[in-house]
Design a protein that fits this description.
There is one protein chain. By secondary structure, the protein is mainly alpha-helical. It has 18 helices and no strands. Helix content is 80%, strand content 0%. The protein is globular, with a radius of gyration of 21 Å. The chain starts with 9 loop residues before the first helix and ends with a helix.
C-alpha cells in the first residue's frame, strides 16, 4: 500500500521543534558560542583564554562518557525523558559556566553542557526521531539539524549582545534558565512513541501501518541485539566509521574555518562574516538535503555528501579566492548533512524496532571518532604547518567514508521495511 502524504502531524512537529532547540542550544552553549563565552569567562576568572579552551576540549571528551551513560539510561526510562533531562542538565550547566568561581567549577559545568547537549541531541532526539519517523528520518532530521545553523546565526550574536550589556554571569543565567524551562516543558509533553499519543509512526493511518510496518513493539527486536552482538556486526562498524568520519570532516572544517579564510587572504572581519553567511546557506541546505534523502534514499544522499565535500575541499586547497568562495558555499550547504546522516544511516539500516539499544552502542563510538578532529587538525598542522594539508587529509577521509557507505546494506535489519516488502 502506498503511503499518503500526511506530514509530521502536530505532536510530530512538537518533537522536531524541541529537537531543533536542543541543536540550537548546542551551537550557542558549546560549539560556536565558545567564541563569546571563553574570553568572557577567562576575563572573569583572570586566566588565559587557552586554559578555558583546554577545559572545553576535556569537557568534550568527558561528554562521550556521559553519552554512554545516557544510552544505557535511554533504554530504561525512554528517550523523551533523556532528551528533556539532558537539556535541563545543559541549562543548569550553562548557568554555572558563567558564574564559575574557579577553573575546576567551569570544567564540571562544561561537562554538563557538552555531555548533556551531545546526549540529548543524538541519544534522546536521535532515538525519538527513529521511533516517530522511521521512514522519514532524513526529512525529520533536516528540520532538527537546522537548529545548529540557527545557533550560529542567531544565538551567538545574542550572546555577544547580552555579555556586552549585562555580563557573562547574568547572560548565562538568562539563557540557561530558558533552556531549563524548555526542558521541563519537554519532560511533560514529549512521548517515547507515537502510540502513546494514539498515533502511528510517520503519522500514517491505521491501514497504512498494518500494511507497511512491523507490529512488534520498538523494544522487542527479533535480532536480540546486545552490545557484544552489535560490536560483532559488520553494519555497526560501517555505520559508525562512515558517519564518524563525515562528522570529523565537518567539525574539522568548521573549527578552523576562520583561520583558513585568513590564510587565503581574507581579513578577519570578512573571514568571520563568512561564518554567518555559511549558517544562512546551511538553513536552506538543510531543507534541500531532506528532500534529497527522500528522493534518492540514505545511501545515495550519503555518497553525494562525500563527493561534495571532496570537491569543496579540493577547490579550497587551490587558494584561488573565487574557488574558495565556491567551496564555502558547498560547505555551508552541507552544514546539516553530516548530523543528519549520523542519525539517519544507522536508523535506516537497523530500523525503529530495537533502535534504542543500537543507538546506545553506535553513538558513543561515533562520537569518539569525530572528537578526534582536534587531534587530526593539530597533528597535520604540526607536520606540514598548513591548513591546506589538513584539508587534503579531510578529502581523503571523505573518500573513505564514501566507500564505507557504498558497502552498507540498507534496511538489512529494518523490520518495518521487511513488513512493507513481505510479498
Amino acid at each position: 500500500m502506498e503511503q499518503t502524504k500526511r506530514g509530521f502531524g502536530a505532536w510530530g512537529w512538537f518533537l522536531l521543534i524541541f529537537g531543533l532547540l536542543i541543536f540550537f542550544s548546542n551551537g550557542g552553549f558549546f560549539a560556536d558560542g565558545t567564541n563569546v563565552i571563553a574570553p568572557a569567562v577567562a576575563e572573569r576568572l583572570n586566566v588565559d583564554r587557552s586554559v578555558i579552551l583546554t577545559m572545553n576540549s576535556v569537557a568534550g571528551i568527558i561528554g562521550v562518557v556521559i553519552a554512554i551513560i545516557a544510552g544505557q539510561v535511554n533504554q530504561r526510562i525512554g528517550p523523551s525523558k533523556v532528551a528533556a533531562g539532558c537539556l535541563i542538565l545543559a541549562g543548569l550547566g550553562h548557568i554555572a559556566t558563567g558564574n564559575a568561581v574557579n577553573v575546576p567549577m567551569y570544567l564540571i559545568a562544561m561537562c554538563c553542557v557538552g555531555g548533556g547537549l551531545s546526549a540529548g541531541s543524538f541519544v534522546g532526539i536521535g532515538t525519538l526521531v527513529a521511533m516517530w519517523f522511521p521512514k522519514k528520518q532524513g526529512q525529520a532530521m533536516s528540520v532538527v539539524a537546522m537548529g545548529s545553523n540557527f545557533g550560529t546565526m542567531l544565538f551567538v550574536p545574542l550572546l555577544t549582545v547580552l555579555v556586552g550589556s549585562v555580563g557573562i554571569a547574568v547572560s548565562s543565567l538568562i539563557c540557561g534558565t530558558v533552556a531549563v524551562v524548555v526542558g521541563v516543558i519537554g519532560a511533560v509533553l514529549l512521548r517515547n512513541t507515537p502510540k502513546e499519543r494514539g498515533l502511528y509512526p510517520d503519522n500514517v493511518t491505521e491501514a497504512e501501518f498494518k500494511a507497511n510496518y512491523s507490529s512488534a513493539p520498538p523494544e522487542m527486536d527479533k535480532a536480540g541485539w546486545t552490545t557484544g552482538k552489535l560490536l560483532r556486526t559488520k553494519e555497526t562498524w560501517l555505520c559508525v566509521l562512515s558517519t564518524g568520519l563525515l562528522m570529523l570532516v565537518q567539525m574539522g572544517l568548521m573549527t578552523q574555518l576562520v583561520s583558513r579564510n585568513q590564510e587565503v587572504g581574507m581579513s578577519l572581519e570578512l573571514a568571520t562574516g563568512a561564518m554567518s553567511a555559511i549558517a544562512v546557506i546551511g538553513i536552506i541546505g538543510s531543507v534541500i538535503f531532506g528532500r534529497i534523502v527522500f528522493k534518492l534514499g540514505i545511501k545515495k544522499a550519503g555518497v553525494l555528501t562525500c563527493v561534495l565535500y571532496i570537491i569543496a575541499l579540493l577547490l579550497n586547497v587551490t587558494g584561488v579566492l573565487p574557488l574558495v568562495w565556491v567551496s564555502l558555499v558547498i560547505i555551508g550547504f552541507l552544514g546539516a548533512a553530516a548530523p543528519n546522516l549520523m542519525n539517519s544511516i544507522p536508523g535506516s539500516v537497523f530500523g525503529r524496532v530495537g533502535y534504542a539499544k543500537v543507538n546506545s552502542v553506535v553513538f558513543p563510538i561515533t562520537s569518539i571518532i569525530y572528537m578526534c578532529n582536534f587531534a587530526v587538525n593539530g597533528a597535520v598542522q604540526a607536520v606540514f604547518h598548513s591548513l591546506s594539508a589538513a584539508y587534503i587529509v579531510f578529502a581523503v577521509l571523505a573518500l573513505i567514508a564514501m566507500f564505507l557507505i557504498l558497502a552498507i546494506q540498507d534496511h538489512k535489519y529494518d523490520q518495518d521495511y521487511m513488513a512493507a516488502h513481505k510479498n
